[in-house]
Amino acid sequence: MKKSGNALPVDVSMPHLDAVVARLCNPLSLDVVWHNPAQGAAMPSLTDLEGIMSRLSAAIFPGYFGSANMRRESMRYHLSANLDSIYRMLSEQLLRGFCFACSKQKNARTSCKTDSEQAALAFMDQLPEIRRMLAGDANAAYEGDPAATSPGETIFCYPSLRVMLHHRIAHALYTLNVPVIPRIISEMAHARTGIDIHPGASIGEEFFIDHGTGVVIGETCILGRNCRLYQGVTLGAYSFPKNSDGTLIKGVPRHPVLEDAVTVYSGATILGRVTIGRGAIIGGNVWVTEDVPPGARILQDNSHV
């Protein structure tokens, strides 16, 4: 009886592994996780989506990402080629996303290819606005952090700009009703920065997260212009409404609204569909579950100052 390294003898290991296979194929275990691709469509590719984000970074912030030798005289040529590749790659991934969603529904759509191409074109049309918003975020980071030496440094180095690059792209796709792909793009940034922003969250201009690690912003949050958060802030749901059968009701507004120029310091938790008024300041480690009037300052003892 031969052994290979530390492996079990063949006559012992094979029956053992066969038993494991049988248990893994048991419908009680498999049905929960089984994915049946619609019409043979492949799953979205994480590698290809990383490539798309790399190309989008170069298109939105030329010179910072992509070719190090980019010149304005030749930018139109490079940008045209890059956008053509982005459109083709994105259309394919959106198709896979639509097909993935179809596989989970009883009535599958018959226009996934057309829908993916139209969504990709509609997204491409938003790129100039996405760049404008991100340029404002970079400037807000520079003006809001005395350690920043230039807006360019924040683009190249800051986790806030990395996560907002992903978020503004993911949010644009989310508003086009693209399934799955926006969440994948958001989770890429979450994994790299520790900042968790759902693609459904609506975030206004000139937004900055200082430091950033541990920030959570929920799906139905609405943030106005010139808001600033610090590390460890949670903008979450206080409770989850349920149907009569006990299942969660999806999509209802359940996260905070921050009006313009709100600052939330580190460790603060704001829960539920509450409104934090314009210019309010929420102190560190505060728990907020009620509306806060404009201009108020909320401290750890929950007193208004």
TrEMBL record:
Q: Name one Pfam family in it.
A: Hexapep
Q: InterPro entries, from UniProt?
A: Hexapep, LbH_SAT, Ser_AcTrfase_N_sf, Serine_acetyltransferase, Trimer_LpxA-like_sf
- The protein's enzyme class: transferase
Q: Name one GO biological process term.
A: amino acid biosynthetic process
Q: Does the keyword Acyltransferase apply?
A: yes
**Entry-linked CDD domains:** LbH_SAT (cd03354)
Q: Which reaction does it catalyse?
A: L-serine + acetyl-CoA = O-acetyl-L-serine + CoA
GO molecular function list: serine O-acetyltransferase activity
Give the E.C. number(s): 2.3.1.30
Keywords linked to the UniProt accession = Acyltransferase, Amino-acid biosynthesis, Transferase
Protein family according to the UniProt entry: Belongs to the transferase hexapeptide repeat family.
Entry's NCBIfam families?
A: EPS_EpsC (NF041874)
Please state what the protein is called: serine O-acetyltransferase
Name the source organism: Candidatus Desulfovibrio kirbyi
